[in-house]
Input
Amino acid sequence: MTMHAVRIDMRFTGPPPGDVPAAHLNLFLGALRKNGQVCGREWPIVMDSGACVTTVLTPAADSLDARYHGTYVRRCIADAQLAGITFAWSLIGEECDSAEACGCADPGAYVLFTTYLTLESPVRCMDCFGPVPLYRFTAPPDTEFHDVISWQSDYQSCDHLQMNCTVLEKAATRQMSVIDSALSAAGRACCAVLSERAGKPFYYYLYRDKGRSAALEAQRRCPACDGPWQLPARLHGCFDFRCDNCRLLSNVAFNLRASYMMTAPDQLPAPIAPCPP
Output
């Protein structure tokens, strides 16, 4: 199961409203996005046979089912009906370039993870590493996933800057790498809220760009508790460090990955077990 492309039609039961019709559709799409039912924030809107039409990406084929609607989505639909507007959607097909979604019945834990290339949900299953739709973590009444989506947008902006290597590269990389940065603080706060809703551990990923040597990388300790956190083997092709006590993940510095993998085992410290939960 991957993300799906879905066509959404906004139709009018009478004459179109006097204001810009697309504004009503944008309100609906914004509510769906903040509820985790729509991924991304770019949706071209066109008029087709008297209806406003757009194409969106959804986490799954059934993501727009009414059972997943949050408070604001239901309110938006009700307000639209009073204005003589109805919404309908139809499945176009699978999105060919997205990650395989989580199909685990009962994941043991989750991680907050995204990149500048990612359109999927920023929550990943720690068992299969597949994206998990946000609406699975039912929000309390009158709340949305605004904090999680805002964090994802901020993180991806920083990732863009550090990948472009032109403007604010060092500042952006620090936000992604340091545990006490504003970005990390916001992300860990999201993890705490989501963990409470799910009743499962939520991990936060600290990006590691550059290091001085493979041996020093292997000696890194958890930046929160200073405990051992080196993993005996790379997890999901991404993570080399995990602290179960502080619920943090990280990687061997990208500039040293090749030399770290090629270093003879007897030249590196022995693998250290992660902190106990």
